[in-house]
Specification:
This protein has 4 helices and 7 strands; from the N terminus they run αβααββββββα. With about 170 residues, it is an alpha+beta fold. It has a single domain, classed as START domain (Alpha-D-Glucose-1,6-Bisphosphate, Chain A, domain 4, 2-Layer Sandwich). A 7-stranded antiparallel sheet has the order 1-7-6-5-4-3-2. The longest helix is centred in the C-terminal third of the chain and has 19 residues. It is globular and about 40 Å long.
Length: about 170
């Protein structure tokens, strides 16, 4: 039997270098949590929790269709929702995962690839909890939406805060 080379693996997302080609605009959101850095970090990688705080009825009228996470550097995620009759697949690749401290990943809507943004989440111990700082650097095509992006992240992180603090 002859040896057959496997097909070349095509990247779903732009290379990390390409993901750095972002606009000069940056969204920064800081939220204090009365929850441990570990709990906050794990909430970013837990499909069931993501379906409650990042998407779903606590935020807006939408149905979560599927959340798939490959939580490793180079791993991908897909957060598929139905909103206003349209399926929207939020996708990305994990560029850095530092347990309980930092997540860095690309962020895009599948149908808008290669307009890929970059999101960094820093989690720092503070008092009896932690502070979360989220930085979202949008792709140039999305620079005009920074106000909406900031409000959306504030709302999502506030829902996460309520869930982790036992109020959600």
């Amino acid at each position: 039997m002859p040896f057959i080379n496997p097909p070349a693996k095509r990247r779903l997302f732009p290379s990390p270098e390409r993901a750095l080609e972002l606009s000069s605009v940056k969204v920064v959101v800081r939220i204090p949590f009365h929850a441990s850095p570990k709990a906050v970090y794990q909430a970013w990688l837990n499909p069931e929790l993501i379906g409650r705080w990042m998407f779903g009825r606590l935020l807006r009228e939408e149905e979560v269709l599927g959340i798939v996470i490959d939580a490793r550097v180079g791993g991908n995620f897909s957060f598929l929702v139905r909103r206003d009759g349209h399926e929207i697949d939020h996708v990305g690749e994990y560029l850095e995962l530092l347990p309980f401290e930092k997540l860095l990943f690309t962020w895009a809507i599948r149908e808008n690839l290669p307009d890929t943004s970059r999101v960094m989440v820093k989690i720092e111990p503070a008092g009896e909890g932690c502070e979360v700082e989220l930085q979202h650097e949008p792709a140039p095509a999305w620079a005009d939406f920074v106000g909406r992006t900031e409000e959306a992240w504030k709302k999502m992180l506030t829902v996460l805060k309520h869930i982790l603090e036992g109020n959600g």
